[in-house]
Fold these 2 entries.
Entry 1:
Amino acid sequence: MQIHSEILENKGIRPSVQRVRIFKFLMKSKEHPTVEMIFNALLPEMPSLSRTTVYNTVELFKEVGLVQVLDFGRGVLRYDADLSPHSHFECERCGAVYDLDIKPQDISKKMPRGFKVHQTYFYVFGLCSHCKKNEKN
Amino acid sequence: MQIHSEILENKGIRPSVQRVRIFKFLMKSKEHPTVEMIFNALLPEMPSLSRTTVYNTVELFKEVGLVQVLDFGRGVLRYDADLSPHSHFECERCGAVYDLDIKPQDISKKMPRGFKVHQTYFYVFGLCSHCKKNEKN
DNA sequence: GTGTCTGCAAACGATTTGCAAATTA
DNA sequence: TAATTTGCAAATCGTTTGCAGACAC
């Protein structure tokens, strides 16, 4: 509990109960949760939590650089507190998201003149091992 | 007009007036248009066109493999009829989308065992040359 | 004629916004 | 107590759905 609130303070944001809980959840989660997943996971221990607060908080975390926002094109955003260079895989069948230990390629030298790169995202879609095994149809 | 309708027929779909017009527009467009952009562009010449038809049509095109769907995380989908391997850049300032002549890296050998890759997307975000030049604040 | 396609209107669902009450410095 | 944060309720907006009429083979 201590460490997490300090990280928030270092980013210049107040470590409210809600923010600390949401941040802890994001740090330990491997599934790149959506707002709905965060909300459902924390509701039992924080019955007064609102979706709005989760939305506010992940937006704030994004702005201060605590999380990465992932968009797999399903109309829901996912949040990843792992900021090291890696890529993401989404199973088209079951929707599960996996980290790939693949650094997005360095393209700074291949950019058109005058362009400035801030962020790159490498998304991979396909079937996870489990769904591939069970592939029937 | 001839060629386009033949392409649709080769994909096994009926070359209705709306489909051919939408397909032509997608083929000649360099801006990776949204449904709204397609709709607004074609409305003058097809006053009875509906957004629903545009949605139906781009979905159909996606399914038969005539277009690629791009999602830059802005809550709007964009459609690209260029299916050659390339990447995409979105300017964070003005929202313009540019093609990058960069092949997404081949990662088939780096995938975890049992995973099957269908599609990869490489997205780059930053400032385009025009917005970078005008960068004031 | 029968199945497909179009397009209106309503529904949907994730996210955003307005704002008043609660909280914290 | 003044500024920030929370959370309810309503709004927003891109997209989807239901369905009736229009169209094409």
Note: Chain B has five helices and five strands.
Entry 2:
Amino acid sequence: MDVVTIDFETYYDKDYSLKKMTTEAYIRNPLFEVIGVGVKINDGPTDWYSGSNPKSFLSSFDYSKAAILCHNTAFDGAILSWKYGIKPRLWLDTLSMARPLHSVTVGGSLAALATYYNLGKKGDEVVAAQGKRREEFTDEEMERYARYCINDVDLTYALFQKLKNKFPVKELVVIDQTIRMFTEPCIQLDTPLLEKHLNDISTRKQELLASVSVDRNSLMSNDMFAVALQSLGVVPPTKISPRTGQETWAFAKTDKAMTDLLNHPDERVQALVSARLGTKSTIEETRTKAFIEISQRGSLPIMLNYYGAHTGRFSGGDKINLQNLPSRGNNKIRQALKAPQYSKIIACDSAQIEARLVAWVAGQEDLVQAFREKRDVYSEFASEVYGRTITKADKIERFVGKTCVLGLGYGMGAEKFRRTLEIGQAGISVKIDLNEAERIVRLYRQKNWKIVEFWNLCGYALTAMTQGGSGSIRGILKYDADGIVLPNGFRIQYAALRATSNGFEYVSEGRSYRNYINAKLTGQPHSIAWTKIYGGKVTENIVQALAAIVIREQMAAVGKKYKVAFQVHDEIIVVAGNADADHAERYLTEVMSTPPQWAPDLPVACESGQADNYGDT
DNA sequence: ACCTGTACGTA
DNA sequence: CGTACGTACAGGTT
């Protein structure tokens, strides 16, 4: 397949810039202008075009059988697709490729990657391009800009040559799908619904504010809210910050002392606390506003980071994080995401994928078997806890069982377990004392002793990894000093992993890692944030990484026949025409009911639905 | 303009 | 020793 490497240079100024706005808003803005574009076909010489009709220049090549390669292809690809209607057979992206291979150690910029691979130096943009329209460049300036752009194209192509040999083809297909979510948007936004929703939220918030005697600032500011509580004779609750160890206000909706105040005998206190909790979350409002703005420009391009988490999960991008849309309380924003005309949105989510994977990877065979027989494992564990048969009808008891299966598999302790039950979910909250919590945790660990053993195996792996050793966890996952090898060949990497007096720690954030390395090279002292790591957490990381692989393989399979609109960790969302919708749903569920090749004995299951909008699936 | 801590939404 | 994210906001520093 021909590889065409492309890089756009576009107009920007102080305010109209990618630093200040989203990629979607930037490209759709009336100020958008292509200054020039560099194009390289395979390893041929890079061509530069800076005329008034990039479309005709670009369209001289047939991309329908070619791959287009860029660094940050969401940007250049969106220009190609939205402005010129160019949609290649395959999108390639060196930014996406760098993430799984280098974790946080190199950084995603073309400059850093080019230096790392000794490909040459990325040029400084010598032209004073800010605020300058294409026609305002002198010939000499434009020539310098061309050299800069051509160098970037050549570096991107050279970088791809380095990365491609380490990269599974299946994963390239997933990168292509991820780019297409942005470059070929299909979700439509329901502007009237969003506007009504925004109006409703604003009204509700105003009513809340009107019910108390203080203003919005007094609710939003911790210190001012404390004063407001004191003025009603309440001692503001405090707690010790887990992060800093310092005393801080306990004003979160998960702080029991705070929610207790909702039942305070003084109704003014109830109203004040209720107003604070209702005002503090702004996510509905800000998100709705953002969607309204996008809806005025067009359909919804979806930006996901292909390998956002170090476990391989996707993460959200371009300011709209589609992976944390409210769903429990209010479904309105999801309902505003509509299928195109004469089409349906089909959503399918993998059932208890992480619980199944932890049982499978640890060899907890009785639990795997229970999933295989489609038994209700939450009710079954609850039956053990309560010493009597629990069914789906026993909502509270089953909730306890569910919390055990989902939480206790990664080493959660009794106190946190007790609190998790108390905080509750979906209107169910369960109060137990610490002794009872300890009994349940012990029971879980006795019954699922293979999972406990797996934590220990992961702990041994950490020890070996810090000592430069290698080995395997249950013959399933090899590891060495560079990390734990996953079934797709990628690694879970723990940068700068080291043993401490009571465990292990690593550097999880890129800038910290590079500060740490620089400090080591120069002998300078450094103070960076270390992230703790231990057997139970490695177990969770492995399970999350395996689940991410399962869903990416499923995405690639589904994508052969249908348009994958986006994904949310264990859920795949497809758009298909009305006539195809039932077929698509059947195919989607079939794919998501098929175990991966590397775990043919893993029982997987899924649940699906279709509707005109995402919220009703 | 940027940084840190906290909170809160999802999985 | 549940974990993985991204964003908004407050309150501080540069």
Note: The radius of gyration of chain A is 27 Å.
